[in-house]
Specification:
- The protein has helices at residues 54-62, 70-76, 81-98, 102-105, 125-134, 151-160, 176-188, 241-244, 247-259, 273-276, 279-282; strands at 2-18, 21-34, 39-44, 118-120, 140-144, 165-169, 191-195, 215-217, 236-239, 263-266, 288-289, 307-308, 311-312.
- The strands form three sheets. Strands 4-5-6-7-8-9-10-11 form an eight-stranded parallel sheet.
- 47% of the residues are buried.
- The protein is built from eleven helices and 13 strands.
- Strand 6, helix 7 (176-188) and strand 7 form a beta-alpha-beta unit.
- The protein is 30% helix and 22% strand.
- It starts with a strand and ends in a 9-residue tail after the last strand.
- The protein is α/β, with parallel strands linked by helices and 321 residues long.
- Helix 1 (54-62) packs across helix 3 and helix 5 runs parallel beside helix 6 (151-160).
Length: 321
Amino acid sequence: MRVQVSADTFKLAQVFTISRGSRTEAHVLTVRITDGDHAGWGECVPYARYDETLQSVTAEIEGLPAQFDRQALYDLLPAGAARNAVDCALWDLEAKRAGLRAWDLAGLPAPGPEITAYTLSLAEPDEMEASARDHAHRPLLKIKLGTPDDMPRLEAVRRGAPNARIIVDANEGWSAEVYADLAPHLVRLGVALVEQPLPAGNDDALIGMERPVPVCADESCHDRGSLPGLKGKYDVVNIKLDKTGGLTEALALREAALAEGYGIMVGCMVGSSLAMAPATLVAQGALVTDLDGPLLLAEDRPQPLRFDTAGVHPPDAALWG
């Protein structure tokens, strides 16, 4: 078995800004695994928030032994971007070997389209209002916030898209006091979900706090091992394959989270259709699907995912799985 890893860059359609900074390109790693007869591939997005770089993740992947399978992979790599790309490449390889789709191998029904959020990046209120107006036809908008001065931005987006369902991602940018002050206004403006309002590791203030809008754990939830620390704080968990370390753990996390009463959000880093493709399996029936990465790009993979009024569709076999 041969494992190859390469760095790829995709230009963004416009500058993408969150509370941690801005970018104009998506930098990803592509993993290809061949067995001589078949080849599978996967993609990951190393994330500085989790102390990952293109170089460190490449080194993790290149350090793998010559032979392993998906079960062994979980003893070889921790949850994170490296394991994600390799795990998803193995799913693709197994599907091609078997002449089946990945969802058949997973024992899942054939997936259908899911309505996905479209993300408006952080900007001045007038810019966000204009962007919201441009995308007001979309049924679900996600707003990047996370500053002490977010109310004008939220008001502006609601003016621009009066009929859209809105979710808010604070990216750990609020304090408990800021969140408590904003909560009634979130209700007034019809916000359906708040994602990670407080910093991970400093979110105990959510225990016992009134949550009139459901609160979703993103940076606080990586894999099944995260679930015990979420009790009493969160209503929803955001499953991202770059956090779980692949589709295998993402499916297991979804099952475990549902069993504990959490709602499911399926999210992504800013990557190509190859990164989103496995996540479409996890997103089936989710409370919120946020797989808009390809919509933010100026360029994409061959045979990209299809997006239309029904949502994001599962991948063709030519792309993945």
